[in-house]
C-alpha cells in the first residue's frame, strides 16, 4: 500500500468531490487518500482476460462486469476502492457515475506492493459489503488463484483454484478456464 498523501483528512463526501477533479486515481480509507500506482503489463492483461470472460458469460443477464476505473463503496462509507474487476447485478449500480454500492464479485490482481493490503485491510472492508458473494485474488507471479466465497453472513470459504481447473463462480453461474485467466500473461 502506498503512503498516505499529504492532504488533510476529509469526509467521504469531500473525497468524492476531490477525486472527481484529480488526474490520477486515489483510494480512500477512513479519512486518508492513497495514490494508485500504475499496473504492470501482466496485471492489466489478467484483468482484461477476466473482465472479458465475465462480459461474455454475463450477456443476457442483469449482471455487468466493470474494470479498473470504477470505484466501489465499502465499509459503510469509510472506504472507496478501485478493484481490478467487479460484477454487479444491481440496476442502481448500472446507472451510477462515481461508484458502485452492490457488487456480487470483486477481483483483485496482486502485485508485490499491494498483496498484503489486498488480502488484509481491503478484504476486511469488502467483507462488510452485504451484496458481495465472491472475492478473487489472482497472483500473476505465482500463477495462483484464490477464490473466497461467502457461505454465511460472516463466514467465507477459500478455494485455491489449481492449474488447469476452472474458476467456478456459482453465484453468477459462470466458469472461467484457468488458461483464460493467465492467457498472454507470460
Automatic annotation (TrEMBL):
Domain Putative restriction endonuclease residues, every copy: 13-172
InterPro entries: Nuclease_put_TT1808 (IPR012296), Restrct_endonuc-II-like (IPR011335), Uma2 (IPR008538)
SUPFAM superfamilies noted in UniProt: Restriction endonuclease-like
Highest taxon listed in the record's lineage: Bacteria
Pfam families per UniProt: Uma2 (PF05685)
Record-given protein name: Putative restriction endonuclease domain-containing protein
Organism ancestry: Bacteria, Pseudomonadati, Pseudomonadota, Betaproteobacteria, Rhodocyclales
Amino acid at each position: 500500500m502506498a503512503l498516505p498523501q499529504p492532504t488533510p483528512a476529509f469526509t467521504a463526501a469531500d473525497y468524492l468531490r476531490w477525486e472527481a477533479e484529480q488526474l490520477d486515481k486515489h483510494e480512500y480509507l477512513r479519512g486518508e487518500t492513497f495514490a494508485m500506482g500504475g499496473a504492470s503489463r501482466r496485471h492489466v492483461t489478467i484483468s482484461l482476460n477476466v473482465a472479458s470472460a465475465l462480459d461474455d458469460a454475463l450477456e443476457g443477464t442483469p449482471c455487468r462486469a466493470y474494470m479498473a476505473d470504477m470505484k466501489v463503496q465499502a465499509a459503510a462509507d469509510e472506504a472507496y476502492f478501485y478493484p481490478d474487476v467487479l460484477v454487479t447485478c444491481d440496476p442502481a449500480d448500472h446507472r451510477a457515475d462515481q461508484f458502485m454500492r452492490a457488487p456480487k464479485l470483486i477481483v483483485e490482481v496482486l502485485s508485490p506492493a499491494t498483496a498484503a493490503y489486498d488480502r488484509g485491510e481491503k478484504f476486511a472492508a469488502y467483507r462488510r459489503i452485504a451484496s458481495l458473494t465472491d472475492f478473487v485474488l489472482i497472483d500473476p507471479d505465482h500463477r495462483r488463484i484464490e477464490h473466497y466465497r461467502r457461505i454465511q453472513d460472516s463466514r467465507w470459504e477459500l478455494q485455491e483454484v489449481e492449474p488447469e481447473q476452472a474458476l467456478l463462480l456459482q453465484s453468477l453461474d459462470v466458469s472461467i478456464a484457468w488458461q483464460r485467466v493467465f492467457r498472454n500473461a507470460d
